[in-house]
## 1
Amino acid sequence: MDSDYLQIGGIKKIIADDIKAETAFEEKGKIGESVVLCNKIINNLKVLKKLDGSNSTYDSLIRSWEKRKEDISTSGSQGLKKTGKQTEKKGNTSGLIGQMEQEFRSRITSLISDSNVKWSEIGGLEEQKELIKEAVFFAMAQPDVDVKVPNLRNILLFGPPGTGKTTIAKAISSNIEATFFNVPISELISRYVGDSERIVSALYTIAREKAPSVVFLDEIESLLRQRGDGNKNAGAVLQQFLSQLDGFSTDDSFVMTVAATNVPWELDQAILSRFEKRVFIGLPDPETRRKIIGIHTTGKGYKVDSTMDNIVEQTDGFSGRDLFYLCSEAIRNMLRRTNKEIMEEKEKVIGGSSKVTYRVNPLSASDFDQALQKVKPAINEEMSKKYFRWKEEFANN
Ligand SMILES: Nc1ncnc2c1ncn2[C@@H]1O[C@H](COP(=O)(O)OP(=O)(O)O)[C@@H](O)[C@H]1O
Ligand SMILES: [Mg+2]
């Protein structure tokens, strides 16, 4: 599959060259050569369609080139010029390039996602939130005298999975009402091999157009990993990212890059040097766990019928995500417990034959205890130590 993706970029280049050549032949009246190239273009579009089936633009491209071939072969060079098809053809060609361009842009815009998160929905991490808010402030504000400003627009968040890095990136974006580009790097590289280099510059172009923007680079270590795997394209993508990250503090349109990684020790100096701010997002301490449990229970309108002390104590090593799952599970337990009879009628409800409401009761200690049997923390102590060692050496907090 990967080699398919490698081919896609190559074939697109060939098509682009053929289109140029075809136009030149046609303008010189070399109909034979023109038709040969039309056939080649059509065949290559068919190959592309096979390799890159997710893409619906190919059918219409193929149709438009088949029509063009027919026009050329039936009217001959004189005919084309006399009937004014020359101009129609030009429109066609730019239409085709336009379509490819459009397809490209729509891939980027598909990365734009909703970022509706308030700072108050992130439990604990007070020091980190302050550090990040300050960084965003200095990134957005202008100095009052003419000084050279270092690039303050890149922030690196690192820490164990599920600790709120993605959520923080969204909060940054939503707080400044920015356009949020959610970019999973590994997916970008594997999906758009051949194109991914162009994707990166297009990404930042569109981010500037839609400024203020936050570009969220998730799993940034994949930039290096894929290169190590011998994926040549990844090297080019890395270079493209590095030059974008070098920044444009002269540029007025506000684009901030927030990168995240669960494995900071895989990053190299080239990447690290682009991130002035490196913020450790660690596992929650007991007080933070209490807050996160609150956000995912009372914060969502549920009542809690018992003290949380016991649960807080028993969730040492849980990430925010683990706690979120724990709360969801406890809520489900409460709903099952409270709605036994109604649940017996679930066939009816699912069948849509009757409208039923269910009861919501306070969450009890046993709802949480049962949930604890199911949800286990995702990382171990040794991993925790590894994060702390890296933090000591490289982080701002
Ligand atoms: N500090 C936190 N406060 C509240 N919820 C959190 C917190 N950290 C994580 N979560 C919950 O865990 C989920 C996953 O967090 P996420 O930001 O995707 O983690 P990461 O990107 O670090 O892997 C979030 O959707 C949220 O529900
Ligand atoms: Mg994440």
## 2
Amino acid sequence: MNIYWQPTDTTYELHRFPKGNHDKSLQAWDSADELLVQHITAQKEDVTSLVILNDSFGALNVALHGHKISSINDSYVSQQALEQNLRINHLSDVYHDSSQQLDSLQAIPPASHVVLKLTKNLGYLEFQLQQIKRVNQACHIVAAGKTTQVTSSVLALFNKYFNQVTTSLAKKKSRLIFASHAPEKLDIESKYPVQTQWPEQNLTLFAHANVFSKDQIDIGGRFLAENLPQISNNQRIIDLGCGNGLLGLASLMQAQNNNANAEVSFVDESHMAVMSAKLNVEKQFPERLPYCQFIQDDCLTQQENLSADIILCNPPFHQQNAITEHIAQQMFKDAKRVLKPGGKLYVVANRHLPYQVQLKKHFGGFKVNNQNKKFIIYLCQKKDK
Ligand SMILES: C[S@@+](CC[C@H](N)C(=O)[O-])C[C@H]1O[C@@H](n2cnc3c(N)ncnc32)[C@H](O)[C@@H]1O
């Protein structure tokens, strides 16, 4: 695996997060990062402060660390990757003296340059462009992504909010987009959080811009919600990789219908996901708020051993643009540690996903709790001793 990166005249050592957990072909930066760093470095003293959005594993922040940076990220894993890579390159102190990390729902502070790494999610891109526009102060905007990401729809979004939108030539399969502040263009109100009705559960689900399946109920999640275990009084349930929180919310609904008092922890690495789940509990189960937790975490890293009765999980199989099993594997491993003896993990997965080996490895076996043409629900029980 290539871990040494020289975007300009300095070489940095960079790793994905968690270090050593990835396919050897995956590195912690790409050619779009390289173009962005080279462009900003060439601007020299014109750059007085930077806002960096969506830095996947900290490459942009590490390479541009001499500037005053506000780094905005929705991902806890990306934030941890940045801290890890700052430490490896002995830059933590110098970086934190002048820079700050902000979450994805915070307002964007004014800066001379805004550096944006394109994400696949167009709704989230538009949300971020609206936030940049709202700064309402002159700034240079430079974005980058793979040439396949610089589509006419993406350029149309830039033209909607900014002036002088141009692109660079492609280099190593990536391109830059340049734009400048447009005070005369209308400040369009964000449509987020969006709402989806879930009549079968009598619920309305709100979701912020970067939440998985924000415009519809995911069919895997829905299948697990329709097959929830019986929830008894005072059980602690974890909705692991909660997205908008549909599994935890369906559990609260079932508990309410059975007059049971359930405690639900909603856990996701996305800030917008955790905040969506919180909004949904506030709106629909306000009386259960004191018994719910909303936690941004990498799998269950921050959760205590032997602390949960039931874990519900519809695991991700992507990290950024890469297909990966390592997150699901970490989720199963953490679930085993966090469940109480006799506690149960329910996993819903597409039939083709190869989770059986890992579930067997951690729990000694599994049962098929239910299945349909597309999905299987696995049930693993932690042994009493
Ligand atoms: C397939 S979605 C399931 C969302 C929701 N539970 C549902 O059923 O619709 C997987 C979720 O896992 C989250 N996720 C990805 N990596 C994670 C990690 N390392 N730790 C915690 N959650 C993660 C994603 O943000 C996403 O919300």
